[in-house]
């Protein structure tokens, strides 16, 4: 006999819990199922722990530079990796336990722990239990992709989850993958004191970004002593005693890098392989992403997919926005759609990259007439005062409508500054609104109007 609910949420990532609580708040009988740890990737092995570790790494970096600011530290800078991990664990635990407590104390909401698998389009099995509902909300997220690199089964490697257990300093960390996840770990461990090599298959880092952004980030990371092996087209692994040898077959330099540890950060795959999507008749694409429409409905009536597993976003804020879209349509009579949202994200190296809308390459490809503004961080008073002038800010504007098309801000506090641009984009207002706004001095944001005052045609 199946236990009957009005709605079942699978996964407690960044969309499921809020949606479950909203539905339960409307008097629906709701179940939420979690197979591992409450809070999913972001809380346990994604955003929260990495940003907590990055804070420790930045502290070490600033401490090493103390002399530049006239501050003398009497002794060497020592990183206690056990304490670093303990601090991270405490921050994560607080989020995870807070979430679990909230869910378990929410009225009309039943929390079930175990792996959910569809039996058919109206029932899921969790261990011996069968749960039934007319509505399902899938929020199963994703995990690190481990491609079948030659020799990968011969060596031990780390991924973003197992990195969370590291409480020691790897002598030489080889990071496979020069994109968002890999670069954050690379800089973090370099600052903790490891030797770090980034091995990237493509000729440049973070290939989705403009070349000037990618190049500038490379320069920043290299200036901290991170070694880059780009254009590594034939990556392979081999055990060498207690070390790992990575064949890189690069455009230049040695063909092998030998390190003490290796981290695989080469993309993510959705957790849909063991969900029983076939039994429910839910369509997935060739990579396993659940196919959804603009309101996150799957092809099966009553079944929705939210967060990373639908392939429409890969961030906590896109997953949470998915929840808002579904809740608005189902509960508020407010017609919200995925296509309403503007691309926005940050890369949390230091200094961070804040991104909104189109890249310069995308604008060029679109063929529209555009204006561009670019300003090095050396011109930002606040950056000079702080002694952190790496990076630049770049903005693109439609020459005819004056609407902002996109921005890439690489520099201190740019993960925050980007929102002043993003909000004007959401307001669908012309760039002149920010250009004429009086901003506070001394901030990074005060240079945005200056940059907009110096726009030039995009040649
Ligand atoms: C190292 C790293 C750093 C990141 N940093 C950032 C950042 O700074 N900012 C940002 O916006 N994003 C960041 N991300 C991405 C972000 O973590 C994800 O986009 C976000 O967590 C996606 O949330 P989600 O709700 O889709 O799924 P998840 O958070 O992955 O949650 C899915 C949940 O479903 C559960 N589950 C899966 N299958 C089943 C099943 N069959 N039955 C029951 N439960 C199941 C899982 O155990 C998990 O708890 C980072 C990711 C990584 C890996």
Keywords:
binds flavin-adenine dinucleotide, 6-stranded antiparallel sheet, 459 residues, alpha/beta
Radius of gyration: 24 Å
What is the subunit organization of this protein? Answer: single chain
**What general outline do the C-alpha atoms trace?**
globular
**Which sequence of strands runs across the widest sheet?**
19-20-23-22-21-24
Number of strands: 24
Helical residues, percent: 25-40%
| Mean pLDDT level | 97
Provide the list of bound ligands, each named once: flavin-adenine dinucleotide
Q: In terms of structural class, how would the helical and strand content be classed?
A: alpha/beta
**Cα separation of the termini:** 68 Å
Give the biggest beta sheet.
Answer: 6 strands, antiparallel
Number of helices: 13
Percent of residues in beta strands = 15-25%
What low-confidence regions span 5 or more consecutive residues with pLDDT below 50? none
Describe this structure in words.
The chain is α/β, with parallel strands linked by helices and 459 residues long. The protein has 13 helices and 24 strands. Strands 19-20-23-22-21-24 form a six-stranded antiparallel sheet, sandwiched between helices. A five-stranded parallel sheet has the order 4-3-2-8-18, with helices on one face. It has a four-stranded mixed sheet with strand order 1-7-6-5. The longest helix is centred in the N-terminal third of the chain and has 24 residues. It is globular and about 70 Å long. The chain starts with a strand and ends with a strand. The mean pLDDT is 97. The structure holds flavin-adenine dinucleotide (FAD). Flavin-adenine dinucleotide (FAD) binds next to strand 3, helix 2, helix 3 and helix 8.
């Amino acid at each position: 006999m199946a236990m009957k609910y009005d709605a079942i949420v699978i996964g407690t990532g960044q969309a499921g819990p809020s949606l479950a609580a909203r539905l339960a708040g409307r008097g629906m009988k709701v179940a939420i199922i979690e197979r591992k740890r409450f809070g999913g990737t972001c809380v346990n092995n994604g955003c929260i722990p990495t940003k907590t570790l990055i804070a420790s790494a930045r502290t070490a970096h600033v401490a090493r530079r103390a002399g530049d600011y006239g501050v003398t530290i009497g002794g060497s800078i020592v990183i206690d990796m056990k304490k670093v991990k303990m601090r991270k664990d405490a921050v994560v635990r607080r989020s995870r336990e807070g979430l679990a407590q909230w869910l378990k104390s929410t009225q009309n909401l039943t929390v079930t722990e175990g792996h959910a698998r569809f039996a058919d389009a109206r029932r899921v099995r969790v261990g011996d239990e069968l749960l039934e509902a007319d509505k399902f909300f899938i929020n199963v997220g994703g995990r690190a992709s481990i491609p079948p690199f030659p020799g990968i089964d011969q060596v031990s490697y780390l991924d973003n989850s197992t990195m969370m257990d590291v409480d020691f300093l790897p002598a030489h960390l080889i990071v496979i993958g020069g994109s968002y996840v890999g670069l954050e770990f690379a800089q973090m461990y370099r600052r903790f004191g490891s030797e770090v090599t980034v091995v990237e298959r493509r000729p440049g880092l973070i290939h989705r970004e403009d070349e000037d952004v990618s190049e500038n980030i490379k320069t920043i990371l290299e200036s901290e002593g991170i070694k880059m092996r780009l254009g590594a087209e034939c990556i392979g692994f081999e055990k060498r005693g207690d070390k790992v040898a990575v064949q890189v077959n690069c455009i230049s330099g040695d063909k092998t890098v030998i390190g003490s540890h290796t981290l695989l950060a080469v993309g993510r795959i959705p957790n849909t392989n063991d969900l029983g999507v076939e039994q429910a008749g839910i369509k997935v694409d060739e990579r396993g992403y659940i196919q959804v429409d603009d309101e996150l409905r799957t092809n099966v009536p009553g079944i929705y997919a939210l967060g990373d597993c639908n392939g429409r976003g890969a961030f906590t804020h896109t997953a949470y926005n998915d929840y808002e879209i579904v809740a608005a349509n189902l509960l508020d009579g407010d017609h919200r759609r995925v296509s309403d949202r503007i691309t926005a994200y940050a890369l949390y190296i230091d200094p961070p990259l804040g991104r909104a809308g189109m890249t310069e390459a995308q604008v060029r490809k679109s063929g529209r007439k555009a204006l561009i503004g670019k300003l090095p961080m050396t011109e930002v008073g606040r950056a000079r005062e702080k002694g952190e002038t790496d990076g630049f800010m770049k903005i693109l504007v439609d020459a005819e409508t004056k609407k902002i098309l996109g921005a890439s801000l690489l520099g201190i506090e740019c993960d925050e500054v980007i929102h002043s641009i993003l909000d004007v984009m959401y307001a669908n207002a012309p760039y002149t609104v920010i250009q004429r706004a009086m901003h506070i001095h001394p901030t990074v944001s005060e240079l945005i109007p200056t940059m907009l005052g110096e726009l030039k045609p995009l040649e």
